[in-house]
Amino acid sequence: MNGAYEAATAADPFARTVSFLTFLISSLSSPEVLQLPHDQVEESAETGARELGRLLLQAHLDLRARVEEAALSGLSSSSRAALADGRSRLEKNHRRQLATMVGTVTVARCALRAPGRTNVCPADRELNLPRGRHSLGLQRLAVLEACRGSYDTALEAIDRRCGARLVSKRQAQELVRAAAVDIDAFYTCRTPVPAGHETLLVLSFDGKGIVMRPGHLREATQRAAERATRTFRTRLSAGEKSGRKRMATLAVVHDAEPAVRRPHDIIAPPGGRTGHRTPRPGPKARAKWLTASVEHTPDHVIRTAFDQAEARDPQHQRCWVVLVDGATHQLGLVRAEAAHRGVTIHIVLDIVHVIEKLWAAARCFHSATDPKAETWVGTKAARILAGDAAGAVFDIRSEADHRRLTDEQRAAADTACRYLANNADHVHYGRALAAGWPIASGIVEGAARHLIADRLDITGSRWSLGGAEAVLTLRALISNNDFSEYWIFHTRREYERHYPQPGQHKYGLTA
Fold it and tell me: What is residue 251's three-state secondary structure?
């Protein structure tokens, strides 16, 4: 760089940017480049545009540093002391590196000092600089990519976007955990959109295991794993569990308009549908809200879901329908929470779980390839949907007795009957269909696959408790389409934590 260019750069922070843009235009219009295929030119243009963006950002920061230096130099010592809580000594040209979406830039700013006290850099507050070296934009990109796929693929995506390795794997993990800290506060401040009194309020719950690192299991699971004896050294035998999973609890709250149906709208009659009557559709879920946790207990997740439901219906004027899979512990927690809040709930056993039990029971009476098994399941399911689960249980047991099946041969049939008998209070499907309630928990089942299986259960994943909780809660937030609004909330909270002020403003959120 010659002396004239240095002088121009000193006079105008954007001089280097203009010079590079001129060079880039000259390069792309050179005879050599005019002979290249478009993909090579495209790559050169992309690289150049990224560097041009970095130079623009650097020039902007240099200009701000120059303006700040002039402003602080013009203040008296007492004015600087008032600005920085008694710090009046001015030191110029303090520098720090900032990794951004367009590359690494240097932030120059002034520091105000006082003996025995830490420095204060007013520009840090004005720029809302993070404590670490990664810009908020780069943090946002890292969080979204890490929630979408594995950390390795996230880093590859960041490298492609930014043109350089700006984030390490450990740093990405730390950024994800830090990004999730305000999710509970965000939803506490947020007011859901109200719905009419006729609109159903539907809650459903599920659980799914996540493979954890040693030392991150629940105590009971850890003790069971330590007590377990293995038949083989190198693999599990039938019925043995590895004891490596910690259960995550998921909950879904949504609104739905009632949709009246009949049993044959749910399941085809024996022989199939004739096509003369179109099946009536079920209730359509809207305003879906997901929450999940592997760190907190199931009662905490259920309580959080009830908080969301009560925010939608604080006067308990709507019809609350709770879809369950029959887990006894889950049912007890749901009933206890409803009683604590004084809300009337209508518990419905997921019909999909019932039909799965019927298919297993059908194998006791028909071979796996026998078409009659489908008719058998359809007949029993239609009877259950009509509200006669007890009659279906009697028929299944009578058929097993009539065929004189052994205990082993009829095991699946007995399991289905016990499942229906134990949940007799929750299989009044005739009433549910007549009232237009949903009877299947497919939304929470899909959420379990989407939130956990598609990310936390990928091959080779083993999670720490904090890492799994952060990714799980962030994926739920993204599924709720709340990430953009949350990120604004989170960056404001970060600003307040890093640069606290007396009487700093409070703010709430509305949907």
Answer: strand
Could you give the CA distance from residue 294 to residue 209 in angstroms, rounded to a whole number?
9
Helix (H) or strand (E) holding 317: none
Mean pLDDT throughout 471-487? 96
Closest CA to 303 of 276, 274, 263, 343: 343
**Would residue 508 be called left, alpha or beta, if left means φ above 0 and alpha means ψ between -120 and 50 degrees?**
beta
Smallest Cα–Cα separation from 351: which of 261, 460, 232, 465? Answer: 261
- Residue entry with tokens 């044959």: 264
For residue 171, give both structure tokens.
């740093």
List b or e across 165-197, with b for residues whose CB sees 16 or more CB atoms inside 10 angstroms. ebbeeebbbbbbbbbbebbeebbeebebeebee
The Cα-based distances of 511 to 178, 191, 226, 312 in angstroms read 24, 6, 48, 11
For residue 22, what are its two tokens?
Answer: 């001129």
**Residue 147 Cα distances to 122, 156, 176, 464, 470, angstroms:** 34, 14, 8, 15, 9
Please give the backbone phi and psi of residue 321, each rounded to the nearest 5 degrees, phi first.
Answer: -115, 130
| Strand 103-113 to 89-100 pairing | antiparallel
Residue with tokens 């992309």: 46
The rounded distance, in Å, linking the Cα atoms of 74 and 147 is 48
Share of the chain above pLDDT 90, in %: 77
Instruction: Give the pLDDT confidence of 339-364 residue by residue, as tens digits.
Output: 999 999 999 999 999 999 999 999 99
pTM above 0.90, yes or no: no
Residues 6+ positions from 288 with CB-CB distance below 8 Å: 252, 253, 254, 443, 480
Residues β-bridged to residue 321? 202, 346
Compute the distance between CA of residue 126 and CA of residue 120 in angstroms, rounded to an integer. 12
How confident is the model at residue 193, as a pLDDT? 86
Q: Beta strand pairing status for 509-510 and 190-191?
A: parallel
Q: Is 501 helix (H, G, I), strand (E, B) or coil?
A: coil
Which sign does the torsion angle of CA 215, 219, 220, 226 carry? Answer: positive
* Residue matched to tokens 């404590």: 131
